[in-house]
Amino acid sequence: MSKLNGRILVTGGAGFIGSALIWALNQRGHTDIVVSDLLASDEKWRNLVPLKFADYVEADAFRARLANNPAAFGRFSAVFHLGACSATTERNASYLADNNYNVTKELAAWSLEHGARFIYASSAATYGDGAQGMDDRSEDLHRLRPLNMYGYSKHLFDLHAQREGWLKHIVGVKYFNVFGPNEDHKGDMRSLVNKAYQQIQTTGRVQLFKSHKPEYKDGEQMRDFLYVKDAIEMTLHFAENATTAGGLYNLGSGEANTWVTLTRAIFTALNKEPKIDFIDMPEVLRGKYQYFTQADIAKLRATGYTRPMTPLADSVRDYVQNYLVPDKKLGA
């Protein structure tokens, strides 16, 4: 039985993953959706244009109204809390603590009190350099050492949810390196696919960071790259299956690929010969750089999620040819 049988709240709904989630909900026939976000002055509002939803509320106004009257927006069957500052380079720790930690605490408590299924974005950044493993089955969250304040702000809520006993009832999804349509507005936080496409259009070449560890050749640092369409199917799985338990779950492809492999797939999708230049990694990133990430998704699979992952080359081809080249959004 699906838990998605009533109104749905999506925070961060104009953002990359949030707008993709609304697109997928629309494909399933859901339009009774309340969207909350901070549109500010960037271009992410364009992600909302093709989508169908019942209402849009600025995040600050939503938070204030909820604090004054917990029943202000009625009841929801599910709350997808994807709204956060996701910049790994953000230096304002106080802002991240409030925006990513306090807001999540408030929404989780409210959702639990009002019987809504609460699914929130944790992050693979909580794992830090991976020295303590990337195992979502371990309950020893204190072992983790995030490398940046963004990862720590996410880690703080995971710890809080565990202390409060909430993790039995809510789901935290740890997205690995998600890429795909609707990320144009993210600036430096865009995926390599998006950045490389722009570089190829301008110069015909792609720049990758050199490795500063001898065990990794230049461009052979590895990431678990996950297509946004797969990420959304995984996320919806936790709301559509009433028997799915709570807890923290890795959402990734389950495979690690090199930056060179990803870059070659972009050139192939454009029917061009690969031309790659290696540049020095900025000093500010060197101590916080992850050289290897790979999601263990056995826990996800154990919940009954059986869909196959889209192969990396196919994901890149779909993104490049059907969205980047024609400059299209999901649903357009």
> What gyration radius follows from the Cα positions, in whole Å?
19 Å
Per CATH, what is the topology of the domain at 8-179 and 225-253 and 294-310?
Rossmann fold
CATH homolog superfamily of the domain at 8-179 and 225-253 and 294-310: NAD(P)-binding Rossmann-like Domain
State the end-to-end CA separation: 31 Å
Secondary-structure element string:
EHEEHEHEHEEHEEEHEEHEHHH
Count up the helices: 10
Major sheet summary line: 7 strands, parallel
Uncertain residue ranges:
none
Strand content: 15-25%
**Class inferred from helices and paired strands:** alpha/beta
Shape: globular
Strand runs, count = 13
The top level CATH class name of the domain at 8-179 and 225-253 and 294-310: Alpha Beta
Share of helical residues: 25-40%
Strand order of the largest sheet: 3-2-1-4-5-6-11
In round numbers, the mean pLDDT is: 94
